[in-house]
UniProtKB/TrEMBL annotation, chains A, B:
Listed PANTHER family: FARNESYL DIPHOSPHATE SYNTHASE (PTHR43281)
Keyword terms of this UniProt record: Isoprene biosynthesis, Magnesium, Metal-binding, Transferase
Record GO cellular component, one term: cytoplasm
Similarity-based family: Belongs to the FPP/GGPP synthase family.
Protein name (database record): Geranyl transferase
Source domain of life: Bacteria
Entry-linked Pfam families: polyprenyl_synt (PF00348)
GO terms assigned for molecular function: metal ion binding; prenyltransferase activity
PROSITE patterns, sorted: POLYPRENYL_SYNTHASE_1, POLYPRENYL_SYNTHASE_2
GO biological process, one term: terpenoid biosynthetic process
UniProt keyword annotation of Glycoprotein present: no
Length: 294, 294
């Protein structure tokens, strides 16, 4: 099966799991808040993070059911970050994946609360998973670290500060390794943790692989913001330039950014080469990241 | 020692623990975000939740050091909820405990992120505590449940919907049991969980005691909003009326609300009477809640 087809299939079954998750929540508490939470996770994009987690699990021989709570939790975290990111005080976006953003569809206060409640739901999911306490604790540590001040939130803060400022390549890389890379690393780490007997060196290779994939993803994102269309992206094309953001193309030129993306992609493949499992699906994943058009 | 003095002493030592916690975070990620997080937790109020947790721990013979990570986590959650609650899209408050609210002191985007990162920090703290995995998992489940959709966030959503609407007493009680009661119950439950050999019946009495205390707290809050002063409260007096909120005084009259508070207080004391420990300090806590002037 082509990579795009298996990603699309995964997307369908994962989105069904998201629907099941929200069907299980009691409506009676606050139907409006629950709708806003559901809306934000169901309006999923490519489901890159849970898919990466599933691929790594499959690669090392962990049943995908076992890591499902962690995958759902990660997607709740990612979704909440987008809801808050889209708020007027932050990126002020009215469109996300071609649909009204949460605060447009509902209201700002509900969007803030929906994000907050999605974060709590993430930790609820992993702490109630059908897996050993040991793994649950590791998952909680991992998700809290990579999503909080030391990860995603820290990166978003730096990203906001960097608007209208010229940042250098090192700072840009730091921003993205926190803002985007942290959750991808978290996906890899959580999948590996479901197999406690995994070799530490393999864990480290996957960690490094996803850090590089995260960087490649961001460079490609910056490139697409220049060369793609609003229709393909599902969000306004050219928004980085509008916000006067430093990007890989603005710092390296478009060709330089493309070269950099290729270099990072090659380094990611080198990490995989040293893993003692069949990593074809992960190599295809890396290729998709670097060649995607949307 | 008088109750007020021990609460004040606790406040000083707990605030020191908060300072130590933030001193341990690396500044290098995003100094601005870290400052906003720190500002929001250091600008503490009465520290009711961690104090309640400490009192219950002491009552059942659990060392206070053992529950410190849970107490700090709970205070991070409470603080983040205030930061987000104060935002223009929510209560739009510029003053909190006599000081500028987080989004006034910093900016709105930073306040949103600081709240988000404080929630993650809370889960990081409990998952890294020096206690058995079993207890950490329970703490995570408990905190996620009581702070999320099924607890605090759900209650805040209902509270927002109830603005400018007439709600009945049952709905008002539901709102407050979620919005305020849930975190107090969480304080009790987390303290109890640190002693796995505790009788379930005692756990349940403390759970019920704190639910009642939470209700009494809220009724007294509503009463103070009518009879106290902005200076004593550290926030604008009369803000409920301004927002056309249904409150206990608006539904029951001021005298009716005072009677209701007394009834709830007596029920709370009845719960304590059945606990096989010396509960004098918890009775004093309940009395403080009901008689406080600020």
């Amino acid at each position: 099966m082509q990579f795009k087809d298996s990603l699309a299939n995964f997307n369908i079954s994962f989105t069904q799991q998201v629907q099941d998750l929200f069907d299980q929540q009691p409506e009676s508490v606050s139907p409006k808040l629950l709708s806003a939470m559901r809306y934000s996770v169901e309006n999923g994009g490519k489901r890159i993070r849970p898919y990466l987690m599933a691929l790594i699990a499959e690669t090392i021989g962990v049943n995908s059911d076992k890591i499902l709570p962690a995958a759902l939790a990660l997607e709740c975290i990612h979704s909440y970050s987008l809801v808050h990111d889209d708020l007027p005080a932050m990126d002020d976006d009215s469109l996300r994946r071609g649909k009204p953003t949460c605060h447009i569809q509902f209201d700002e206060a509900t969007a803030i609360l929906a994000g907050d409640a999605l974060q709590a739901l993430a930790f609820s999911l992993i702490s109630n998973a059908d897996i050993s306490d040991n793994v649950k604790v590791y998952w909680t540590q991992c998700l809290a670290k990579h999503s909080g001040y030391l990860g995603m939130c820290g990166g978003q803060s730096l990203d906001l500060i960097a608007e209208n400022e010229q940042v250098d390549l090192a700072q840009l890389e730091k921003i993205h390794s926190l803002k985007t890379g942290a959750l991808l690393k978290c996906a890899a780490n959580m999948a590996c943790a479901a197999k406690p007997e995994l070799k530490l060196s393999t864990y480290q290779k996957f960690d490094r692989f996803t850090a590089l994939i995260g960087l490649a993803f961001q460079i490609q994102d910056d490139i697409l913001d220049v060369v793609s269309t609003t229709e393909l992206l599902g969000k306004p094309q050219g928004s980085d330039e509008k916000l006067a953001k430093s990007t890989y193309p603005s710092l390296l030129g478009l060709e330089g950014a493309k070269q950099k993306a290729q270099q990072v992609y090659q380094s990611a493949l080198e990490q995989l080469a040293e893993v003692p499992y069949n990593t074809d699906s992960l190599a295809a994943f890396a290729e998709f990241i670097i060649n995607r058009k949307y």
